[in-house]
Amino acid sequence: MKKSFKSTFSVILALVLCCQLLAAALPVGAAEAGTETGASEILTVTAKSNAFDETAGEFYPSVEKITVTYYIQCSYKLLNTQWILNYDPEYLELIDEDEINYYIDDGDIEGYMMPFAGDDGVYNLSYRGKVVANTSSTNGYNISARCGYVSATFKPLKAGKTEVYLDTQVFTLKSSEPLSFSCSYGMKVETVESGEYRLARIRNIPSALLGTSFTLSVGSTGSIAYSPMNYCKKVLSGGSDDEALQNTVKALYFYYEAANSYFG
Length: 264
Hints:
- This protein has helices spanning about 95-105, 230-240, 245-264; strands at about 1-5, 10, 15-25, 45-50, 55-60, 65-75, 75-85, 90-95, 120-125, 130-140, 145-155, 160-175, 180-185, 190-195, 195-200, 215-220, 220-225.
- The protein is of the alpha+beta class.
- It folds into two domains: about 10-175, Immunoglobulin-like, CATH 2.60.40; about 180-264, no CATH class.
- Strand 16 and strand 17 (about 220-225) form a beta hairpin.
- Helix 2 packs antiparallel against helix 3.
- The two termini are about 25 Å apart.
């Protein structure tokens, strides 16, 4: 398992990471007084990520909108970030930038899907069920106060269960602090320079811990949780077109299942 880090800047996820789901007409899990609503009439949305804790909410499909927001907070400034947001268009319709002012504010709203970045964000909305976005600032964005990192507003389309998944691919923080690494479970971290990046490698992961999220600490204030199974999911979810790599991670997953059954 390996992660990449800028040699002079920490490519890490910030100290405070959380996710929240809100509905326009009804709060999460709310039910109208005196109304019995069956499970078949509820839309359950689960927000997932390779960095944030999982959060779920229940809504009536008749609500006007559902907003999923991932929040960050860090004392360092954010230089650049890149991410992919996946959702199921059978259940959720993304409200685009032209419509969002009607649903959220009477006037123009800055940030669209990256509230912290103002109008700097670049979004590719051409995919069905996926948004690819990035932003950068030479001076860095101030995220010292809790702020929205990624915020997506959807029109619910029908009842059922669905997921929104945020894949944060680049997250560069400005820091004068030299990079140092440590890992949970006493795992040894090997580092090697690769151009402008420093690779952090964790080798010899025991079979019983293949599904475990290891916390890799960078410097004194940054950390990221990652596991071999996170990597497998990323590769098989379109992270690589390399057939040999896909077959390798499939074999690793089957080995993980066998080890999980053995160790209980």
